[in-house]
Structures are given as structure tokens and as C-alpha cells.
Design goal:
The chain is an alpha/beta fold and about 375 residues long. It contains 14 helices and twelve strands. It has helices at about 15-25, 45-65, 85-95, 110-115, 120-130, 140-145, 170-175, 190-200, 220-235, 250-255, 275-280, 315-325, 330-345, 350-360, and strands at about 1-5, 30-35, 70-75, 100-105, 130-135, 155, 180, 205-210, 240, 260-265, 285-290, 305. Helix 8 crosses helix 12 (about 315-325).
Length: about 375
């Protein structure tokens, strides 16, 4: 049977686009697929992007309206504008009896739309009528079950174990430790909190690697957060900004040379970051928050979890960094090795892809 794939696709590099690509890779091997991605190409002007998106959307609608029964897999959008596209597609699927699956990769569907008297009833209809809805963790599952009268599937994110090398032994011998932040530089991902806390560390030999693209959120625009971030890090030579990393090989090389992965996030859409699983697979000890169930990964209790409410106190994150820098080397190695085993046992690419394939075959 034919299968239409709708979602963000690289070269837009973020968690949802990578997860969508992993799904596309396996589904393309088992179905006759058509891919529709509505990414913003950085080389395009806003006007050109809008025109291209409109033509692509019209082509998608004609395909849905004129073809026979076709399965549809949607990496669901929760944006305040882009959700209209998904709602329209789902409405056409219902009209033409096309079975469709909504895979929700972020945790801001309710905060963005529940108070909207016009759109929320439509959201309820398309989610409750979907053949399947997939979420990332138990926290999301519980939230969805409160709102929608239907069953929900949980499929955790994964890491690409086909390209990961054995974690380097170098961190086992390194004192003091290297911290790494590997995510987009939203203010609400805690990047400024992290930089400020790290600069207070007394140990002059500790280092902090940061990789990611400065992006806007409800606090600061992309331009503003970039300026704030660059001004903050230039005051400390122990902090190295690596820019945006798009190569998996380079990304894992940095992870495997690091001792701690840190993501002090309170980002509204945050759910089950791929970056945490990638860091675990590389032997990093994890420092993150309990925001939106981010800490609901296997073996989280043996790592470091910060109550997101405590991030308001800048001393809290600093204390966590200090405690990590003083962590007994034997204990660090024990957590590191357990994280590698956990990632390998629970979060492989093959397991993720097989679960996605099973869902699409069953509808």
C-alpha cells in the first residue's frame, strides 16, 4: 500500500526532524512512500518559503483527494500556525477514509491550543479519530489520556547505534571533567543558566563544550539570545562554542570525549530529547531537569535530576556542577558504563524503527 510521510526532514537539524528521518528510512523500505516536508530552507526568503509551502500543500491535498486508500504518517506539528496544516490533512484523511497516524514529538500541544475555543474542538476530533497516536514517554501519555478518549502508544526516542563507536576510555582517566551541552540554544533550554553557573566553578581546569544553533523562544529572539550567549562566554576561556554540528560522526566524537552531558531545560515542548539518549550511549553521565518528564528515561535515578523549579535559584545549578566535578571517579565510571548498557538495551535505532513499522502495518 502507498504511504504518505509528512513532517520536518533534515537538513533542518533538531530532535523531531531526526526522529522523523529515522521513521522515513524504515517505512520507505516497506511501503511505496511520498515525502512531504515543510522545512524552512535558510537560503530561501520568507516569501519564497511561503510560496513553495503553498504549492507543496496543494500538491499534497490533490494526492490525498485523488488517490485510492493511502496510509498517512504525520510527525505532528503543534505550532500555532502550522497545526492548521495538519488539521486540514487529517480532515481530508477522514473524508477519504485514509488511515492516519499522529506521532507527537513535543509536549506543547495543550499549552498552545487548549484555550483556543475555535481550534481545540478540531484538535480533539482529529486526535480521537486517528488510527493511532504515538507519544514519547509516560508523562505525555498521562497528559493525552486526560484529554482524549482513546488509547495512546508510547515509543521512546532512540540513538543511531549504527554509527556510534565504543565510548572512549579517555573520560575515565580525565580529572577534572568536561561538561557538554548539545542542543539548540533557546533561553528556555537553560543555556544562559548553565553558562552563568559554570563560570562560578572554582576549578580552573574544568571545561564546557557547547554546540547548537541560537534560536528564539518566548523569552528572546534568535538575534537576542545569540548576542547574550556570545557576550557571556567570551569572559571564560574554559568555555568553547562549537557552533552547529550536523555531522553525526563529529557529534559522537565530542560526546565520547566528554564526561557529563547537561541539559537544564524548561523548554515548553521538551519531552524525550534524543540528545540525552545519544549522550548515554557515549558514556556521559546525565544532568537534566524533571521538566515535562524529561527524566523518565531508564536509569535516570542513577544520574542527576534537578527540580525545574530550583532553576530559578542560580545557586542550585552551580552546586550540581560543583558536586559533579568532585564526583568519585569510581562512581562516575559505574554510572557511565550503566548508561551505555541502558542505551544499548532500550533505545537502539532498530528497536525504534521496528515499533514504528509495526504501528503502520497494523492500521
Amino acid at each position: 500500500m502507498n504511504l504518505i510521510l509528512i513532517g520536518p526532514y533534515p537538513p533542518a537539524y533538531f530532535g523531531q526532524s531526526l526522529a522523523f528521518k529515522y521513521a522515513c528510512d524504515i517505512l520507505s523500505d516497506h511501503f511505496k512512500t511520498r515525502l512531504f516536508s515543510f522545512n524552512l530552507n535558510l537560503d530561501d526568503s520568507a516569501f519564497k518559503f511561503i510560496i513553495k509551502s503553498i504549492f507543496k500543500f496543494i500538491k499534497l491535498l490533490f494526492l490525498l483527494l485523488l488517490t485510492g486508500k493511502t496510509k498517512v504518517y504525520i510527525s505532528a506539528s503543534r505550532g500555532k500556525v502550522s497545526i492548521y496544516r495538519d488539521l486540514f490533512v487529517c480532515a481530508v484523511c477522514l473524508l477519504r477514509s485514509h488511515p492516519y497516524v499522529l506521532h507527537v514529538q513535543g509536549n506543547d500541544l495543550f499549552s498552545n491550543h487548549k484555550e483556543n475555543w475555535f481550534i481545540w474542538p478540531l484538535v480533539r476530533v482529529v486526535y480521537e479519530k486517528a488510527n493511532d497516536v504515538i507519544v514519547l514517554n509516560k508523562y505525555m501519555n498521562d497528559e493525552f489520556k486526560k484529554e482524549f478518549n482513546r488509547s495512546i502508544k508510547i515509543i521512546n526516542n532512540c540513538f543511531n547505534n549504527t554509527i556510534v563507536h565504543a565510548p572512549s576510555d579517555e573520560p575515565f582517566l580525565r580529572r577534572p571533567y568536561t561538561f557538554i551541552y548539545l542542543s539548540n540554544l533557546h533561553f528556555s533550554k537553560g543555556i544562559i543558566h548553565l553558562v552563568d553557573a559554570f563560570k562560578k566553578l572554582k576549578n580552573s581546569e574544568c571545561s564546557l563544550l557547547i554546540a547548537g544553533e541560537p534560536l528564539g523562544d518566548s523569552y528572546y529572539s534568535s538575534k537576542e539570545i545569540k548576542e547574550i550567549f556570545l557576550n557571556r562566554i567570551k569572559e571564560d576561556s574554559r568555555i568553547e562554542y562549537l557552533g552547529t554540528i550536523t555531522s553525526n560522526d563529529i557529534k559522537f566524537r565530542y560526546l565520547e570525549q566528554s564526561s557529563f552531558f547537561i541539559l537544564p531545560s524548561f523548554y515548553p515542548p521538551e519531552a524525550f530529547p534524543l540528545s540525552i539518549i545519544e549522550a548515554m550511549s557515549s558514556g556521559c553521565v546525565i544532568i537534566t531537569t524533571n521538566h515535562n518528564g524529561i527524566d523518565q528515561y531508564q536509569n535516570a535515578s542513577n544520574n542527576f535530576v534537578i527540580d525545574v523549579k530550583d532553576l530559578e535559584d542560580e545557586i542550585t545549578l552551580h552546586k550540581y556542577l560543583e558536586n559533579c566535578a568532585k564526583l568519585d571517579l569510581k562512581k562516575w565510571k559505574e554510572i557511565s558504563q550503566t548508561n551505555v548498557e541502558t542505551a544499548t538495551n532500550y533505545y537502539t535505532l532498530q528497536s525504534y524503527q521496528n515499533k514504528i513499522l509495526s504501528v503502520l502495518r497494523s492500521i
